[in-house]
């Protein structure tokens, strides 16, 4: 809201665009619900790895809905980046991978697909509507959809008794991981093909590994560095004109 006011954005209602935004809000709420639910039954690291499949769904959906071309170079880049991801997950041996172990993993995989659908609808809106205003109205509509299911005595007590670390975590997730990230994502989809934007998601597991090494003192190995370089090479090929 503050950014929109500073940029003097037009707050007028466009029924066609807002109908798409409402659809986008429904998809986003469903996406977050199955992802959060899935994380209750699987590990955070598994979640990071499985979400790495989202670029594949985005590339295929972009081909279907926007007729975006997948030339040999892009397909090669996607394959290389996928191999790098599998190398990272399998700790040097893709044959070691055994991710889909329970319903949590299946839900997270489903959330990767719904993120692909979200990105396609987002791209459709962003081509004709400001990304900043799209995300502003998106969050307002998401709040309207979610409130009836979340406003209860238990939720209110949880908020009242939330620790300072809890508030910091919520602000970090809300302002950066949701607010800023969603706006940047919308801008990227507006300017680039879906396959190119989605390719950057291959970095997510690699960033997870680096963050775990810095914050949680987890080990980082030569295979992790090698897989990160392979992922980088694949993303470069996808985005190379």
Question: How would you describe this protein?
Answer:
- By secondary structure, the protein is an all-alpha fold.
- It has a domain at 12-77 and 95-146 and 165-198.
- Helix content is 77%, strand content 0%.
- The protein has 12 helices and no strands.
- α7 (131-150) packs across α9 (164-191).
- The longest helix has 28 residues, at 164-191.
- The radius of gyration is 19 Å and the shape is globular.
- The mean pLDDT is 78.
Number of helices: 12
The helix content, as a percent range, equals: over 70%
Q: Number of DSSP strands?
A: 0
Radius of gyration: 19 Å
Overall spatial form:
globular
N-to-C order of helices and strands: HHHHHHHHHHHH
Query: Uncertain regions: pLDDT < 50 for 5+ in a row?
Result: none
Q: Report strand %.
A: under 5%
The assigned structural class equals: mainly alpha
Q: State mean pLDDT (0 to 100 scale).
A: 78
Termini, distance in Å? 36 Å
Instruction: Give the biggest sheet.
Output: none
Structure in a nutshell:
By secondary structure, the chain is mainly alpha-helical. The chain is 77% helix and 0% strand.
Question: What are the SSEs and their pairings?
Answer:
Layout: H1 2-6, H2 15-39, H3 44-51, H4 54-66, H5 72-89, H6 103-126, H7 131-150, H8 153-160, H9 164-191, H10 194-199, H11 203-215, H12 222-239
Core attributes:
single chain, 241 residues
